Description:
Layout: E1 4-6, E2 10-15, E3 18-23, H1 44-73, E4 77-78, H2 79-85, H3 89-95, E5 99-101, E6 108-114, E7 120-123, E8 129-132, E9 136-137, H4 148-158, E10 192-194, H5 197-204, E11 208-210, E12 213-220, E13 223-230, E14 238-240, E15 244-247, E16 253-254, H6 261-275
Antiparallel strand pairs: 1-2, 2-3, 4-9, 5-6, 6-7, 7-8, 10-14, 11-12, 12-13, 13-15, 15-16
Amino acid sequence: MGWLxxxxxxxxxxxxxxxVARATSGRSAGRQLKSLPKxxxxxxEVERLRRFAEWLERHGAACxxxxxxxxxxxxxVPTELVARVWPDEAWRSALRDLVVVGDGPDEVGFLRDATQxxxxxxxxxxxxxxxxxxxxxxxxxxxxxxxxxxxxxxAAELGIVQRVEQLHRATWSKPDGLDEKARDVSEFAGGRFxxxxxxxxxxxxxxxxxxxxxxxxVRDGERTVEAAVWIGEPWDYxxxxxxxxxxxxxxxxxxxxxxxxxxxxxxxxxxxxxxxxREIEEGAGx
Length: 286
């Protein structure tokens, strides 16, 4: 974004999300000032830039949230759509360096570029830049990536930092031999909290609080599953995290053995994150 005139003596611009100014005359002409002059605090151009900065921040957060939804759901995304939004810096920042999978299991790598012609350029595990032109792609949930550890190591070598938490997202693999009759998982039950601290923690972590439960909805294969953890009633003085359970779309309670790998991992991730904020008595083990 270029510089905009703000009165006779200054120009203003948006730099890294902040409104800055420079003088247009005198010894400091053309030099960016360390702070915004008082005379510009309420200038219309400054106000417009501030509102634009706020919009950019909301837009960036919305892009990250949408890409995160694509990744958690592992649903196919039209390649044409990826190419269309790529020129937008906010979208590009959210998408760049995510692990992307094309038509086949061998078409996997880190997304580095997308052209207007609908061609994706990715870096594969051999370090080669390859071009993919599938009709749709997926940004898989990490629990579905068979080469997750190799991808993590290669990402570290390349210095890759993902805006959307994919490779380093906390994951839980569903164990074999689950009790077919079990109705919930109590691994992270019993964490003690005072008053509304548990509900506040759930909200701060981005989970929905519905009555006495913290929930997250997860696309698990062909259905949407809701993972839920009991967090107590709002009026309770002391509450404890309850067991983790899952509900099918029609409201039926699923047995853990029925839950798919993504719903299992995301449910356990929520339960673990809530439990991590518990009160720990002095001298007690973590």
